[in-house]
Amino acid sequence: MHNEPLAYRMRPRNIDEIAGQQEIIGQQTALYRMIKNGHVPSMLLYGDPGIGKTSLAHAIAGTSSLPFIAMNATVSGKKDVEAVVAESRITGKVLLFLDEIHRFNKLQQDTLLPHVESGAIILIGATTENPYHDVNPAIRSRCGEIRQLSRLEPNDLMAVLQRALVDEERGLGKIAIAITNDQLVKISEGVNGDARKALTILESVVSASDEVDAKIVIEDWLIDNLIGRIGLFGDKKGSHFYNLLSALQKSVRGSDINAAVYYLAHLLEIGDLVAVSRRLLVMAYEDIGLAAPEVGPHVLAATEAAVRLGMPEARIPLANAVIEMCLASKSNSAYKAVDAAIRAINEGKTGDIPLHLRDTHYAGAADLGHVGYKYPHNTPIGSFGGWTDQHYLPDKIQNVEFYTPVIAGEEKKLAAIYEKLKGFRKK
Hints:
alpha/beta, Zinc Finger, Delta Prime, domain 3, Helicase, Ruva Protein, domain 3, 10 strands, three-stranded mixed beta sheet, 427 residues, Rossmann fold, elongated, AAA+_ATPase, five-stranded parallel beta sheet, nucleotide-binding, single-stranded DNA helicase activity, 19 helices, ATP binding, ATPase_AAA_core
């Protein structure tokens, strides 16, 4: 009887047993050929849980036959690092797999880095967080390979499950199991590309099933029950959460309702209502803007209602807001205008405020020359209201334009007014 979980027992023993990830470790890749020829570079593996980072490290170790040490940065201390360094002095070279590498502290890094640089320690770091955000640059610079692993496809997972069913040494091959191809497909498609979850479900469903005529008979309802909400992944503090926020905004910007609603649903299931509401409000003004100025207040009302309601009812006003933004005319002109002004200021394109615009609410302002301001409300111009021809920007940047209107939705009218006022100034 095995004590270890099936997912642990079925880890690939060499790189030829890796499921999926063919673009990274397939037989036609440089990394595969390097490892087969005995050269293992230090590397960082990045991706969601269960997609094979640890398995790939173990497979590389099995192929290379190097002394292999596995550590987790959440529980390892300086003494653990020193032990790895001592091992490298004895064996000449050690392959170190460091899980959750982004949690390594500076003291641990300082102990390890010289030996990684010298090649005495070959480092394979794994992280669920974006290494360009969460891994120290000193470690990144010493890793020749930084690879983002992808979630496994159902076909890859089918191969993993079928291998587990026939493997008599590590898998379930010694047990007579009646499981259909459709049931294996259901597991493969229900775990969102996570091999560990697929094997865990297979093991669990076998354990929960009854034996009939000397065979374990698998029933559909057991698989459905165990899969449950397993398709969700990520948390509200991880890189994947921010990737979902980015995907939501880009889908709204691209007017794709179905994609936007999908990413909204995923974000709400992960569960940070405040962050989602904040992003939606930013989107209303960044991406919809002046083309549909009524959308901003609508989204504000929706987000306030969502926070007041809480989940699950919050999904309703937020879905309204997302769909309205998808279908609204779009303009980023205001956002680009203020960014252009900020950029100009930071580049030193500034000047003195014109004297006629300076504060005059004190005795002596006239003596300083703070005079000459023309009050626009005193000179009405058609149905527009008050306007008068005077300059407002500093003299040095008098002719700079930061705003470029987008001819969309309501901004068409604003653009026409803008151009007409420019014409008045030229006259």
